[in-house]
Amino acid sequence: MKNRLKVLRAERDWTQADLAHRLEVSRQTVNAIEKGKYDPSLPLAFRISRIFGMSIEELFDPNSDDRS
Amino acid sequence: MDSTDDSPTGFCSGPQRDRSNHRRIRLWAFFWAFSFIAVSLGIKKEWFAFGGTLAGVIGNLLFGLATVLAYRRFLQETDELRRKIEVEALALAFGVGLVGGLSYWLLMVSGAVSATGFAFVFSAMLITQSVGVLIGRRRYS
Predict the structure, then answer these.
(1) Is the complex ipTM more than 0.90?
(2) Looking at the domain assignment, is residue A65 inside a domain?
(3) Mean pLDDT, rounded, for A51-64
(4) For position A6, which CATH number holds?
C-alpha cells in the first residue's frame, strides 16, 4: 500500500531510526512500510497517524498496492 | 553502521527486549538439548534405573516447555514485522514437518528406512524455520 511516510518523515528531518524509536518498532519495519512492502497493523497505523497529526486516510492510499 | 542512513537493515541492532528474549531462548534451548543428549546417552548406555530415566525425561520435558514459553514471550513482545516473519517461517517449518514426516512414515512402514532416521524430519523443520526467517528478512528489506 502506498503511503506518505517517507515524505512526512523527511519534512520533519527525522531518520528512519528516529521514527522507529517514536513508534517503538524496528527500523526495518519503518523501511518496509515506507517501501510499501509491509502494511502496518491497525494499532500501528493509528500510532503513525497520531505522530504525524493526520488521519490514516491522509497517510495511506488504500487504492494502491506497490508491493514488489 | 550509520543509523541515520536509509539502507534496509536494522534487525541486528534491534531493541534490547529482543536481545534479552533471545538470550533467554538460547539458555533454555541449551539446557533442553543438553538434557536430551544426556538422557538419550543414559538410556543407550543404561546409566540409570527406570526412576532416573523417568526423572531425566521429565526434566527434559520441563526444559523444552521453558524453551517454548520463552519463544512465545519473544513472539508476543517483538516488533510486529519480526513477528510476521517468524510466524511465516514457523508455518513453513510446520508444513515441511507434516509433509516430510508423513512421507518418512510411509517409507518406514514399507521398510525402506529405519525409525531412528526420523530425527532428520525435526532437523529439516529447524533448518526450514531458520531459512524462512532469512528469506523473510530479505523480502521485507
Answers:
(1) no
(2) no
(3) 89
(4) 1.10.260.40
pTM reported for the whole predicted model:
0.79
Dist. CA A31–CA A38, nearest whole Å = 9
Name residues of chain B where pLDDT drops below 50: 1-13
The tally of domains found in chain A comes to: 1
Instruction: Count CA atoms within 13 Å of residue B107 on its CB side.
Output: 14
Set of cell numbers at residue B98: 507434516
Residue type, B23: R
Decide if A23 touches B, using CB distance below 8 A. Answer: no
Distance of alpha carbon A30 from alpha carbon A27, whole angstroms: 5
Indicate whether A6 belongs to any domain. Answer: yes
B70: amino acid identity, one letter? A
Q: Which residue has the cell 503511503?
A: A3
- Annotate B24-52 with three-state secondary structure: HHHHHHHHHHHHHHHHHHHHHHCCCCHHH
Chain B nearest CA to A37, separation (Å): 6
Higher pLDDT, B141 or A63: B141
Using a CB-CB cut-off of 8 Å, the residues of chain A touching B2 are: none
Domain, as residue range, for A52: 2-59
Is residue A23 a part of any domain in this protein?
A: yes
Any chain B CB within 8 A of the CB of A20?
A: yes
Over the stretch B93-117, which tens digit does the pLDDT of each residue have?
999 999 999 999 999 999 888 888 8
Domain range summary for chain B, segments of one domain joined by +: 15-78, 79-141
Please check whether residue A67 lies inside any domain of the structure: no
